[in-house]
Amino acid sequence: QVTHKVFFGMNAAWINSANIKSLKSFLAKISSSNQISQITIDGFTQPTSINPNPLILSKARANSVAKLIKSQGVSAKIIKAGKGNEKVNKLSSRYVLVTVTRTVAG
Length: 106
Description:
alpha+beta
């Protein structure tokens, strides 16, 4: 398994251009030499008082990442979930964790 984090702005579910480029690069690197069998996408939010719906936002983030991955032609099974608030109140708590399970080719 390999993982990659996609970070988000405050209360945002859209992916900025730097994170799009980073995710595309990650997918290209792992798919070139390995067959992807499954991708798990878990969304998280920063635990702040101004985010009244952490489960909704974290799921929207996971959906955004899943949509981008599918647009890259990945046909592997995708499991996505909104996990709600991360434990730590930091900017780095606003992310989606992409976990790729792969089968080595050859």
